[in-house]
Structure to design on (253 residues):
């Protein structure tokens, strides 16, 4: 693990603050002054301002019901409301596990552990969404959900400033179309990727606009009856399942 990541995981300092401490010569690995490029090995001892940094063995996770019209960011240069404006101040340094865009809502995980955030963000755990699509789901769309899709030189459904014009989509794990009326279709989809605006880009390829997107589950963690703008800590059984996932994937925390 990179030294700045080790410090941010085991102390209140951010990675950027850790970098400054390292530059000032205030960090040692064993008996050697640390460099920004140093890696911390399993048996290494790290000292910050002459005090040993103890490795954390516990972590906390909350489920937050993100509201439409909130940005998943510490601050917004356009002055829009962020999730941290709604959450209590005690969570101001917590990290979100991926993002939901401005007009999306639903289950968002936050944790005080960078290791946990990174592990969950890049996992293949299932994500469940309820969608409202403007238009009709054709046979071609169904085949793409079943078999996967690749797009090239295209930005439909993407953020206006994105530079990513090619993307591949794995087959959906499952989907269910509830029905269509008034020019709109409602469906439930289950995917195991977390790419930026993935579902909006997938359906955008077929000129279908996602007008409603709500995430209701991430792995075994469910939104349930949690009201919009509210949060809760994981329950004991949920923590046990999360630790089992980390152990299976040999993730140290």
């Amino acid at each position: 693990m990179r030294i700045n990541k080790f410090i941010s995981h085991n102390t209140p300092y951010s990675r950027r603050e850790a970098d400054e401490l390292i530059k000032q010569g205030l960090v040692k690995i064993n008996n050697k002054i640390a460099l920004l490029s140093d890696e911390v090995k399993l048996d290494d001892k790290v000292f910050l301002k002459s005090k040993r940094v103890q490795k954390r063995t516990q972590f906390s996770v909350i489920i937050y019901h993100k509201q439409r019209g909130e940005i998943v960011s510490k601050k917004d240069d356009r002055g829009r409301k962020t999730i941290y404006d709604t959450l209590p101040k005690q969570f101001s340094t917590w990290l979100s596990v991926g993002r939901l865009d401005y007009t999306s809502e639903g289950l968002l995980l936050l944790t005080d552990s960078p290791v946990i955030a990174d592990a969950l963000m890049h996992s293949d755990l299932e994500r469940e969404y309820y969608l409202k699509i403007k238009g009709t789901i054709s046979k071609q769309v169904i085949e793409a959900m079943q078999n996967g899709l690749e797009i090239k030189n295209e930005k439909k459904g993407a953020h206006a400033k994105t530079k990513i014009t090619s993307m591949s989509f794995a087959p959906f794990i499952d989907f269910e179309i509830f029905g269509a009326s008034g020019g709109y279709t409602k469906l439930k989809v289950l995917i195991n990727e977390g790419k930026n605006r993935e579902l909006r880009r997938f359906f955008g390829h077929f000129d279908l606009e996602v007008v409603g997107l709500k995430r209701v589950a991430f792995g075994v963690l469910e939104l349930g009856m949690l009201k919009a703008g509210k949060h809760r800590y994981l329950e004991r059984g949920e923590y046990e399942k999360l630790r089992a996932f980390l152990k299976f994937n040999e993730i140290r925390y």
About this structure: The CA atoms of residues 133 and 210 lie 5 Å apart.
